[in-house]
Amino acid sequence: xxxxxxxxxxPNLEIPITIDDISPVMPxxxxxxxxxxxxxxxxxxxxxGARVMTPTVYFYLxxxxxxxxxxxxxxxxxxxxxxxxxxxxxxxRLRKTENEKLEVFFGPNQGALIVEARTNIAxxxxxxxxxxxxxxxxxxYRFPNEEPYKVVDMPLVIAQVTSFSCGxxxxxxxxxxxxxxxxxxxxxxxxxxxxxxxTHTVDIPFPCWDREFFRPRxxxxxKFPHLEFVKFEDGSSxxxxxxxxxxxxxxxxxxxxxxxxxKRLAQSNDEGACTCFDAMAAHVWRSWVQAFEIRPxxxxxxxTFAVNARPRLINPPLKDGFYGNAICVACASDTVARLLEGSxxxxxxxxxxxxxxxxxxxxxxxxDYLKLNRPxxxxxxxxxxxxxxxxxxMYESADFGWGPPVYAGPIDLTATPQVCVFLPDGVGFHxxxxxxxxxxxxxxxxxxxxxxxxxxxxxxxx
Length: 462
Known about the structure:
The protein is α+β, with helices and mostly antiparallel strands and 462 residues long. It has helices spanning 69-83, 182-197, 238-244, 256-266, 276-292, 336-341, 344-356, 360-372, 394-397, 445-453; strands spanning 5-8, 18-25, 38-40, 53-60, 93-96, 102-105, 112-118, 157-163, 169-176, 247-254, 300-308, 327-335, 383-388, 407-409, 419-424, 434-441.
């Protein structure tokens, strides 16, 4: 009988890279901005958590590639130049304005950046392309001595096309999160891919900037406590454990059946419908707390996760084609003791309550809160953040004419050890299975695995 949940291993690799060319890619035609112009970014666009260049990688096998290998780099470059016309803000740069706020500005010789590289190994040498692997880092371009979290004066699209000896290639992509959230990134990649295929896909809307939609009210009205942003004193053992421990990345494949059983166990009779995300987030959070053996038991912990605000914005709604950040950060909170001793349904109820509280009023309050209280950095005290990528069409969006990639997604969690990512399973991305990807102290991995594999009521997932 096949397992319901399984730990996956990634090989430790060395990928020798030779870079053949680094060059800017300018829009292929006139754009709606001139040198000296600038564009407003909303407070949701330049939250501390959005000030990153989000890295992803896509692998394409040689048997799927027509025309021949020498052409695909040019196809991607030419299509990127064409897509930068409607998506012209990606050809600009970020700069700081009053109170450290960011804006997009346009100057001469900016554009996106494309890197052409090659390696003398075959894609098959990478092993199974099913889960993120930090040793794929050479496939995603970083500038020499680039500072962590640098976004100011950076190209807002950085693409590395790496040819493998077998004839396949990878596309390593870095998009500035300030310009797009996950759904917006998929919209951009879909449009780029359609340009490369030479087709126009009717379900890809024309891009809409419209960041003024999220301008703060005058005067600002903060109607909620916004625990997701509040700075807490780290009065627990968690911070010390993370600072002193050797951290390792772990991946777990979770079947649709395991998720379904978990959802049934998490459902409470006196509440509304529990979603698969509510159940999985609650289960991972409780497993994480047990693995860390956090003390004291009365210390309050937080679970944060992004919620797509688009369906909640109705007065007025966002325009079709909006690709900016339209997410709010939901926050569930409880003590260590209650998370350890309470039921899965109790924790799932906390997650559900936080999720459904993301109303239109909460979104507006968030924008106003960030106007008055701009966090200078990420706040980690007592917090686990879950990022849900399962709702992104990463595979379907990245068909540049050679079919979907065999892997699409991120590669490394090292820089953010208190983040867990739910990824679609690339092998069966239509089948509902997922990959749970998390960074843990080495001495906590066995406890986390034991807790994660064990469903409530003694049903073993192995």
